[in-house]
Fold this protein.
Amino acid sequence: MASRTILVADDNQQIRMLVTAALRSLGHEIVHAVDGENALEMAIAERPDLVLLDVTMPKLDGFEVLGFLRKRPETADVKVIMLTTAAQKTDLKHGAELGCDEYVTKPFDPKTLREVVVRVLED
Ligand SMILES: [Mg+2]
C-alpha cells in the first residue's frame, strides 16, 4: 500500500502516542490533533486519508467533528474510525448515522487497531 496520511485526534497525549506506536509498522505518515477544533484544522490543512477520532474531546466532540468533516466538500470523503470507550458504545449508532466508517473501543488492542486501519484504507 502506498504511504498515506493518518490524523490521530485525541486530547489524551498518552493515547496519541499508543495509537502512533501501534500504527508505526504500517509506514504511513501520522499527524496529531489535540482537541476537536484542532482536528478540523488539521483535517483541512493535511488532507489525511484517514482520521482516528476520539469521541470525548474539548471544544468539539468527535461526533461534532465528524459532522463537520462530512459537510465540507474537501473532507467529505475522508475515512473516519471513531475511537470510543466501552461506556460510549450506545453512541455508536449516532456515529454510524453521521457516516463513520468503523469504530474501535478503547482500551484498544494494537493488532486489532492495525487490522481495522488496513481494512478501512483498502476499502
Ligand atoms: Mg478524549
The mean pLDDT is 93. The longest strand covers residues 79-85.
